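Thread title: Can someone regenerate the structure for this chain?

I was given the following input by a collaborator and told the matching structure tokens would be attached. They weren't. Posting the sequence so someone can regenerate them.
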Amino acid sequence: MAVTDTGQIRAGRDFAKRPVSLFRNINAKIATLPMILTATVIFVGCSIWTIVHSFTNSKLLPKLNFVGLDQYERLWGSARWLVSVKNLMIFGVCSLIATFVIAFILAALLDRKIRFEDGFRTIFLYPFALSFIVTGLVWQWILNPEFGLQSIVRGLGWESFNFDPLYNPDIVIFGILIAGLWQGTGLIMCIMLAGLRGIDEDIWKAAKVDGISTVKTYLLIIIPMMKPVFVTSLVLVSAGIIKVYDLVVAQTSGGPGISSEVPAKYVYDTLFLRQNLAQGFAASTMMLAMVVVVLIPYVYLQYGGKKDG
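Best answer:
Regenerated them for you:
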């Protein structure tokens, strides 16, 4: 009994000598205060302020005159908003699939240690260094039927060749998609290439000894091991999809008509051109909900099912 009491006393003394957890690593905690305050005040505070005012009838200036769900009913009754959401869904699904497929294929080819790998990697990544406005303007010229790709091909003798997606309301969103893929795929390719380079060479040797083909090795072994890389890529691509704005403005300005409208452009036009704050806030809140829908799977994939060590 005395031994037990002595052990408890020593444990109590050791605990008393330890610094209070609040003051442990105090320098690091002080250094993170600006980031915490910024995230709390600007992001959380402004988000709450936006959501609250989306239930009002604010026009040019914000005012707390609540009207319930009127702004949301008006939003989902707007043809322009419905077209924006439809375009975002088409752009998002096609962009996710095409980006992942193209980026992984390019990363797998470069991972084979081909000649001039550095040059190819630079070429593929270079478009990401450009702004979306520049990319949009470049592809607006390329897809212009008067002096772009269509004109060049017809000048070579194919008079029946027709490729003017930016002027066709049925496929204009795919013209914007081409520019988006050209700019963003290189970054995802580099991320996946880094993931592939992190795979142990012994895995490839073991698969080769077992007679597993290269394609099956990628599908059954390599890709499942790259789950964190794919999750990170998913978040980056999804964030870019939801806030796509610059490409649309630079290429089509939402046209022809409203056929290439997207939610981010709807919010901007509603807030600053039509000066309808409450309606813009309602659209912003719906975009925030889209972001949350993206973040929930990310958090689950990263931390779901994990237990404390």
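Residues 1-53 form one domain.
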